[in-house]
Amino acid sequence: MKLKLAMFCLGAALFAQPALSAPAGPGFEKRNPIAAPDDRWDFASWDAIHHLVLVAHGKDVLVIDPAHGNAVHAVGSIAGAHGVVAIPGTNTLLVTSARDNTARVIDETTGAQLAAIPVAKDPDAVILSASGRRAYVMAADAGAISILDLVKYTEIGRIPLKPALEVPVLVTPGLLAVNNEAANEIEFANLTSRKPAGSLALNGCTAPTGLAYDATTGLALSSCANGKAALVDLRARRVVALLPIGDGPDTVIWDAAQSRFLVPCGKTGTLSVIRLIGRRPVVETAVPTERSARTAAFDPATGHVYLPAAGFVPATEPGKRETMEPGSFHIVVLGPTN
Q1: Do 256 and 214 meet the contact criterion of CB atoms below 8 Å apart?
Q2: Considering the entire predicted model, what is its pTM?
């Protein structure tokens, strides 16, 4: 009994210990912001084929070209854009349209709509298969994953999970993990059998949203609404550590070149940085961004981070949403320090 107790205490001490100290990795500095039209926004992503920033932007998608003077144009006609990804091998985008429960396929250049695919209720985040021939749409209210055939532009199945699905990652080609904001857990889905595959409680993590995965170590970082991030071993299905981050995160980015997770935190206006040395986390100094910058696109080739943001006026009545200051929407740009 005494031996078991000693081993338990040792395990608890290892779990509670602070992140390993080490010299900081390369930092970031602010570059000139990119002006863009006003609207509410959600996820941003990077089109690695065409080298473009994509922003799900209310009634459309912003396409931003950093290599050519940060040219901005809006494409598509969306009913509440939430997630956007470029479809590999094409000039098209897949955009979730939450207010009419569709996923739209639109031409990245002209904005012409090629398809509106009916999906489960309240489509939000989306992820593609490695081949780019399948898409998996997280339907938040329905608590289901819609599986899309991106060749035929049809829904070919649904995986029932729980409501409040947020950001997913692919653990393997046949296994998907997704944050559940209401249940404070990660749910797993078997993409081959199209059935639920268990869950992992994120003890100490409230309302997880953003999620990113390092396939080399099998570790993922889940951003939480209580100023914490859960470092999780998705293969062993266990929480490795709880780490401090800022407030108001909505996504997480894995920077493979620097072995670090980047967490945009919109309430504190910071980018939290958690680097991995092997499998040990190092919490580095947060980078100032701007309040409201809670999502981001990341260019792995240049190391630039693009964060949509805007100024807001506080609500004057209880229960009302704050309003955007006219002309304030823009993209915060962070570049590697020289």
Answers
A1: yes
A2: 0.92
